[in-house]
Write a structure and sequence with these properties.
The complex is a heterodimer of chains A (191) and B (172).
Chain A (H helix, E strand, L loop, with lengths): L2 H11 L5 E4 L3 H9 L4 E4 L7 H11 L5 E6 H5 L3 H9 L4 E7 L2 E2 L5 E2 L8 H8 L4 E4 L2 H13 L4 E6 L16 H12 L4
Parallel strand pairs in A: 1-2, 1-3, 3-4, 4-8, 7-8
Antiparallel strand pairs in A: 5-6
Helix pairs in contact in A: 1-2, 1-7
Chain B lengths: L5 H13 L2 E6 L6 H9 L4 E4 L3 H13 L3 E7 H6 L1 H11 L3 E6 L12 H14 L3 E4 L7 H12 L2 E6 L1 H5 L4
Parallel strand pairs in B: 1-2, 1-3, 3-4, 4-6, 5-6
Helix pairs in contact in B: 1-2, 1-7, 3-5
Classes of the chains: A alpha/beta (191), B alpha/beta (172).
Chain lengths: 191, 172
């Protein structure tokens, strides 16, 4: 499954008022390419802290569903966060991990123990009440709605192809703090 | 006579509540036991236990992104571990929150393995460009509320380092 396919399935199934927190690297690239209308915060650096930031946002905004789109490089940097999130017993957070077994934007280097890590077993062992694993588009089409429609915390692992993901040619038009200010303005109901 | 640390914990949590802090993350230190217990008991604060201190920083940043005030409670080793997180949220995202860190490794300590932390904590914070304050006495717990305001004004994490005397001393 291409990463853009996995991202598209989310774009098609998210509710209009869902908030996306997106990890860095190729997952962020796949989600940006969807041009989905959902309010999105790109967690950017510090690497490894996207899940924690998503949890904090979910705690602050219990009336909104927060959907974390995360890469395996980012998550494997800090597996302890799976324990922290499970312990928080939060109802309005869902997580998806795009697994390509490598640091794609950094040059395609393999993750340690690449191909032999089970993120669903790690999450289940940490106490997550629901996990799912999609190896292809058909499974993703079934499991993304299952993740979103369940009443509480869940993690869906999606296996995606290794693809090129070079660094962007320019720095982009806005800084992280400017993006943060726009996100907060939209979160407050502004344009 | 109250249990050691109870008076300080009460003052600090009252300052947090007055400063509208609603979310706390923590990783324990033995000197923090009364404070974390008081936070856990505070009905207006949602307390999240973390496995790493930089996760606590990330949660506080996310809460701040969502419009809530948050605090990370940890040892100064957690401040050192969180250097990248603190710098990123201060200078890249510009998201404010408070860090209350017990200041191990000074003249008050009795453990040799804590001493290196006392030597490097403040120089590291200065290097990171993170504002910080040292609280020496129970009576100065009000700094906690000032630091929350400072963090909001500066759009940055602010660290308050709590000496043992500030956590377990008797008010004069």
């Amino acid at each position: 499954m291409r990463r853009s396919t996995a991202a598209r399935v989310f774009a098609e199934h998210l509710a209009a008022d869902d908030i996306v927190v997106c990890g860095l690297g190729s997952t962020a690239r796949a989600w940006r390419e969807q041009k989905a209308p959902h309010l999105t915060y790109y967690a950017s650096d510090p690497m490894g802290l996207g899940p924690a930031l998503a949890l904090g946002l979910a705690l602050a905004r219990p009336e909104r569903r927060i959907v974390l789109l995360e890469g395996d490089g980012d998550l494997s940097m800090n597996l302890g966060v799976l324990v922290t999130i499970a312990g928080a017993a939060i109802a309005n957070l869902r997580a998806a991990v795009f697994i390509n077994d490598r640091y794609e934007t950094g040059g395609g280097q393999p993750l340690p123990n690449a191909g032999r890590i089970s993120y669903v077993m790690l999450a289940a062992g940490a106490g997550w009440p629901w996990t799912g694993e999609a190896h292809d588009e058909k499974q993703a089409e079934r499991l993304v709605p299952a993740l979103l429609e369940r009443p509480g915390l869940g993690l869906l692992a999606l296996h995606v192809d290794a693809e090129e993901s070079p660094y962007p040619a320019d720095a982009g038009p806005t800084s992280q703090s400017e993006d943060r200010a726009v996100f907060q303005r939209r979160l407050a109901g502004g344009p | 006579m109250s249990e050691p640390g109870t008076e300080s914990a009460e003052r600090i949590v009252r300052a947090l509540v007055a400063a509208k802090v609603e979310i706390a993350t923590s990783l324990p230190d033995s000197w923090l036991t009364p404070l974390i217990a008081r936070i856990e008991a505070e009905p207006s604060i949602r307390h999240i236990r973390v496995t790493r201190e930089d996760d606590g920083a990330g949660i506080c940043a996310g809460a701040s992104l969502g419009g809530k005030r948050a605090v990370l409670v940890c040892q100064n080793a957690g401040v050192l571990l969180s250097a990248n997180a603190l710098a990123g949220y201060a200078h890249h995202h510009q998201l404010p929150f408070l860090v209350l860190a017990v200041y191990r490794g000074s003249h008050e300590d009795t453990f040799y393995y804590q001493m290196y932390k006392g030597r490097v904590t403040e120089p590291v914070l200065r290097g990171l460009g993170i504002p910080h304050h040292v609280v020496d006495r129970v009576e100065d717990a009000g700094v906690v509320g000032d630091a929350v305001r400072e963090s909001q004004l500066a759009r940055s994490p602010v660290v308050v380092l709590l000496r043992r005397a500030a956590l377990f001393g008797e008010p004069s």
